[in-house]
Inverse folding.
């Protein structure tokens, strides 16, 4: 007897869309979230959304409310999936809440939407000194400051006069083992550069890049806008080393369009850290025996035409658990996963009826 | 005020007592960019018209089409980059190398508009006295005599005496005409320009066109002075010419010079001077059937599209239609023709900065173009911009092609084929 109930793991944009979609199609949904809040990484860390710069909490509120108030969605906060037995149509999953309480639930299919984690710049092979210099921060640190409506040098609380973004930190690097472009960092850096120029119109803002990867509309929504309207300076060439000089940061690298080394002083350096599979994503690979693709994210079958079906029957994936995704990708995958999972449950109940 | 950029490399280094210029001392000293002084870029892009310099995203498409980069080290991409690095464009030689040929704008995905940037930035440099002396002399001549050559204004219509056909001058003609021919400076004064004017006058006469010229009332249209940074002078000339033209009744304004054509089409209307305007090739092409082209010109002819007729104003067909109609003439196209035509180097004030630019380039643009014409096996390089005859004839000599390649205005070729002149074909 198939269990006509869907488990969605992770309540970021992908999981929320999957849960809402499946529930709207008439399924009982069990939504498990490791933290005490819905909305995932963007909601927790990002002041504004890329590319339109809406305030994240405002922009996502309707999506969150739709899930919170849905009668068919049972949300478990502060809860992780720790074990699973059985198979498609009847998975017996063990949930463990942060207070250690365990519960077993029966579900017929699963959508894994456990997302990504930001690259830890301490692992960067370049010498950026993230853990050494207070004024070297990440995109995420910058978002946290922007949530408070300010951007300052952590070392002295003063607004920076010169700000540099360094792209591709932890991405596109065989040495680190991350052979992928994280897809969103060029856009987010450009978005933050615009926000910094809005807050500090006199600041000089630079983006040092290998190549700007502004796919689709981000080209003019972010890159051209930053360059043309906000006078953000894009410089091709990647920084290899950051040193302390007085109370400033000395950035060393090569300006490749001029073919010359660069040694420039900056007040604040923002590392555009990329995406890696999150802890939850790696745990779910183990719990459900989902193979990981070459780069370590959850594997799907039938790419590029099927983006959400994993090799494990009844287990689907949505969002950045399957690789670097922006929010649009994640939400689209959430919808696709809901359709695949619901139709899977429907087929099971017909064949076993 | 223009700010001096922090020098990021030595212009001259002395190594073991030997002076080495910037190209060489790079080998001996490490070159490190130690500052992005954005004050210069900010200052440049604050000038109305120059904003788009900062739009460059360094794709480099302009570099391969820029006629100057072929013979030197200059392209819009490089101009942006140097400015971003804090090198003052106001004091840089880069500012004077652009011929405003517009080929970069044709290919630029970001629409960085050098046609708007150059005159805007040059205007400031001219006001600050940072322009090549020979250019300032041309401005001075234009202001004083109404032409950049420094020829007396009262001799502007002297060429008419050698026309051999009546060329009515409006203030003596005292009657409306169908066509008012705006002759311009080089066709009025330069010996080779005058020959083309005589040829064109005879063609008009043979066609029975009811035409007249302004004669000594005409002044330089000023378009190239405008592109070279003298907006004030341009305005003065535009107002004077508009005033003179407004005195007379005519249906069509026909111009010899593509630069004047550009001014009448795009700039003079801003000052209240708007007339149906045709380049002379556009005026003649629809009248081909009435032209008795009987004397064959058995030559391989290639055509140099003027930047300001082609790219700036979209006319590529009329000159070709005229050339193709000449019996015996074989038209061969050079690799760089039509939209991608190479520039003769005379536009944007280049006509008056020959010493300045030739010292900074491995070859004149006109010389590069003449070599291309020779490579394509042409006997005659046909032109239809009055800057070009003299530029290309000089280039034919300086590249050692004297006797191999003739340079002739389309009007001369047509008049020759009509038996009206004997051109040196």
């Amino acid at each position: 007897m198939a269990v006509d109930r869907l488990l969605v793991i992770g309540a970021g944009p992908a999981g929320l869309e999957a849960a809402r979609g499946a529930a709207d199609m008439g399924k009982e949904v069990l939504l498990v979230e490791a933290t005490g809040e819905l909305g995932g990484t963007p909601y927790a860390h990002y002041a504004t959304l890329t590319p339109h710069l809406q305030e994240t909490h405002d922009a996502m509120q309707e999506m969150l409310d739709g899930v919170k108030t849905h009668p068919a969605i049972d949300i478990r906060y502060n809860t992780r999936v720790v074990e699973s037995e059985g198979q498609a149509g009847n998975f017996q999953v063990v949930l463990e809440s942060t207070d250690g309480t365990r519960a077993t639930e029966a579900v017929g299919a699963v959508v894994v939407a456990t997302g990504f984690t930001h690259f830890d710049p301490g692992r960067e092979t370049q010498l950026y000194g993230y853990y050494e210099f207070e004024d070297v921060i990440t995109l995420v640190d910058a978002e946290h400051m922007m949530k408070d409506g300010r951007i300052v040098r952590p070392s002295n609380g003063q607004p920076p006069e010169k700000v540099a973004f360094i792209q591709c930190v932890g991405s596109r690097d065989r040495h680190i083992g991350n052979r992928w472009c994280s897809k969103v960092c060029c856009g987010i850096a450009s978005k933050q550069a615009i926000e910094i120029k809005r807050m500090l119109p006199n600041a000089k803002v630079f983006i040092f890049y290998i190549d700007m990867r502004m796919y689709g509309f981000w080209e003019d929504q972010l890159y051209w806008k930053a360059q043309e309207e906000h006078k953000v300076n894009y410089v091709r060439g990647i920084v290899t080393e950051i040193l302390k000089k007085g109370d400033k940061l000395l950035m060393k690298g090569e300006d490749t369009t001029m073919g010359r080394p660069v040694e420039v002083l900056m007040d604040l350096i923002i590392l555009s850290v990329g995406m890696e599979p999150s802890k939850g994503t790696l745990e779910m690979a183990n719990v459900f025996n989902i193979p990981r693709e070459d780069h370590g994210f959850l594997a799907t079958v039938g790419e590029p035409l099927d983006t959400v079906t994993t090799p494990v029957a009844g287990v689907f994936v949505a969002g950045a658990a399957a690789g670097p995704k922006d929010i649009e990708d994640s939400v689209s995958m959430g919808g696709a996963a809901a359709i695949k999972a619901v139709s899977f449950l429907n087929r099971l109940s017909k064949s076993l009826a | 005020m223009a700010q001096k950029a922090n020098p990021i490399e030595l212009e001259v280094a002395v190594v073991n007592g030997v002076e080495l210029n910037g190209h060489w001392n790079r080998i001996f000293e490490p070159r490190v960019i130690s500052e992005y002084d954005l004050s210069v870029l900010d200052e440049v892009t604050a000038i109305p018209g120059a904003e788009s310099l900062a739009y460059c995203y360094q794709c480099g498409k302009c570099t391969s089409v820029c006629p100057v980069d072929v013979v030197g080290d200059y392209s819009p991409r490089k101009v942006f980059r140097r400015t971003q690095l804090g090198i003052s464009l106001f004091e840089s030689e880069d500012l004077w190398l652009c011929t405003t040929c517009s080929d970069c704008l044709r290919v630029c995905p970001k629409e960085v508009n050098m046609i708007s940037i150059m005159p805007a930035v040059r205007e400031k440099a001219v006001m600050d006295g940072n322009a090549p002396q020979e250019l300032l002399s041309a401005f001075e001549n234009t202001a004083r005599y109404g032409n950049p050559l420094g020829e007396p204004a009262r001799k502007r219509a002297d060429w008419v005496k050698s026309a051999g056909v009546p060329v009515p001058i409006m203030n003596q003609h005292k009657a409306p005409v169908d066509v008012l021919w705006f002759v311009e400076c080089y066709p009025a004064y330069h010996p080779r320009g005058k020959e083309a004017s005589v040829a064109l006058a005879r063609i008009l006469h043979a066609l029975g066109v009811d035409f007249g010229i302004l004669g000594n009332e005409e002044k330089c249209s000023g378009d190239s002075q405008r592109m070279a940074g003298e907006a004030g002078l341009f305005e003065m000339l535009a107002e004077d010419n508009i005033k003179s033209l407004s005195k007379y009744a005519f249906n069509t304004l026909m111009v010899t010079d593509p630069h004047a054509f550009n001014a009448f089409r795009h700039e003079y209307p801003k000052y209240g001077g708007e007339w149906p305007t045709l380049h002379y090739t556009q005026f003649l092409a629809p009248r081909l059937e009435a032209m008795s082209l009987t004397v064959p010109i058995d030559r391989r002819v290639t055509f140099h599209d003027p930047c300001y007729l082609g790219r700036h104003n979209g006319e590529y067909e009329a000159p070709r239609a005229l050339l193709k109609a000449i019996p015996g003439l074989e038209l061969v196209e050079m690799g760089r023709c039509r939209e991608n035509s190479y520039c003769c180097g005379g536009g944007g004030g280049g006509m008056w900065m020959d010493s300045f630019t030739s010292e900074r380039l491995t070859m004149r643009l006109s010389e590069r173009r003449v070599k291309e014409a020779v490579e394509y096996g042409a006997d005659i390089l046909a032109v239809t911009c009055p800057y070009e005859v003299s530029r290309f004839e000089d280039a034919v000599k300086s590249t050692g092609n004297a006797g191999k390649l003739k340079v002739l205005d389309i009007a001369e070729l047509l008049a020759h084929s009509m038996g009206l002149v004997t051109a040196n074909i």
